[in-house]
Amino acid sequence: MNNQKNFKALLLSRDADAPISADIVELTADDLPQEGDVLVEVAYSGLNYKDGLVLAGKGGLVRNYPHIGGIDLAGRVVESADSNFKAGDEVVLTGWRVGEAWWGGYAQLARVKGDWLLPLPHGFSCQTAMAIGTAGVTAMLGILALEEHGIKPDSGTILVTGATGGVGSVAAMLLVRRGYQVAAVSGKADAEKYLARFGVEEVIAREELAEAIDRPMESARWAGVIDSVGGEMLARVLGQVNYGGSVAAIGNAGGVMVPASIIPFLLRGVNLLGIDSVMQPIPRRQLVWEELAKTLDFDALDAITKTIALEDLSEYGASILKGGVSGRVVVALA
Ligand SMILES: NC(=O)c1ccc[n+]([C@@H]2O[C@H](COP(=O)([O-])OP(=O)(O)OC[C@H]3O[C@@H](n4cnc5c(N)ncnc54)[C@H](OP(=O)(O)O)[C@@H]3O)[C@@H](O)[C@H]2O)c1
Questions:
Q1: Superfamily the domain 7-120+304-332 falls into
Q2: In this structure, what are the phi and psi dihedrals at residue 286, rounded to the nearest 5 degrees?
Q3: 3-state secondary structure of 17
């Protein structure tokens, strides 16, 4: 690799409390932070809710500027001092605080740790791996957690909240493919049509479940829940879970404080399962990608994925924070 060759990156800068600025710049490999033993030519990155926060300078996720966001990346190894990888290998990376504490995938070149990389999983291209990205990996982690707590397709209906978002869309799609009956909560006007393409027949308007209520429990309706909304909606649905059912708590798009009652845990033995995708060990990640390869409808994933350029990220980053993005967004770097 010629370390003086220019590559394109979206560089975030911030002076003190001034608003963040995002500029497309030309860098060389020498400009990349030196931590990391593998240089990757990035073909695709993705857009997740957390990327939206980083692009907006919100959430206290980035301490040091200038910074390059992008919590996911897929591409080809250019140089490696890690014996597990060599030049030419195709690799994928999600999480590990890349794009937050470390420079990430919104650049044509990234220097990362070999410990964070997986060989591109069988059956995936760099583009489809990024259409999955952190959102899809986390959706599968949530489904595996429900199944490891005894939920099977004949246990009853699984509720997916934030269902047209990245995590929600992939979760709904995967659950149907695994044989589950799925109900979805969405705030979008076109959600029924959007979700029908995966075979989701029951769509509940967000307003119906948006607020916690005084009663600690309601009629039991859900064998399990994949929740990317948190806040009052999580508190509300906890009171609707069947005896012994489980809720995978994934996200906080609707709020971080959960005004919930303890009663569903005590009287119905409900399980609240915390899901973290960022620091999952490599064997768990390998299992997730194997399950994804077995379960995915790649055509359906393609149909809900939009490909954008680095130049479009500011617009899409702002939109995802307002719940304005349906499905998945990948960023083409090559
Ligand atoms: N635990 C982890 O490791 C992990 C990994 C990935 C993501 N997450 C978290 O999971 C959440 C979803 O991430 P994502 O990338 O899928 O984001 P996303 O694409 O923006 O999806 C979130 C969806 O939630 C719904 N929503 C948004 N604002 C809402 C509100 N105020 N009240 C109720 N519903 C609202 C919207 O769906 P509808 O319009 O269909 O209602 C939106 O599309 C985020 O909080 C993210 O930080 C966590």
A1: Medium-chain alcohol dehydrogenases, catalytic domain (3.90.180.10)
A2: -65, -40
A3: coil
Ligand 1 centroid to Cα of residue 23, in Å, is: 26
Digit-coded pLDDT (tens) for 13-70: 998 778 899 999 999 999 999 899 999 999 999 999 999 999 999 999 999 999 999 9
**Pair 76, 40: CB distance under 8 Å:** yes
Q: How far apart are CA 133 and CA 93, in angstroms?
A: 8
Q: For residue 196, report the distance from its CA to the centre of ligand 1, in Å.
A: 19
pTM value > 0.90: yes
Residue among 89, 81, 156, 149 nearest 121 (CA): 89
Q: Confirm or reject: Cβ of 305 under 6 Å from ligand 1.
A: no
Fold of 134-274: Rossmann fold (3.40.50)
pLDDT tens for 150-169 read 999 999 999 999 999 999 99
User: Residue with structure tokens 């695994």?
Assistant: 178
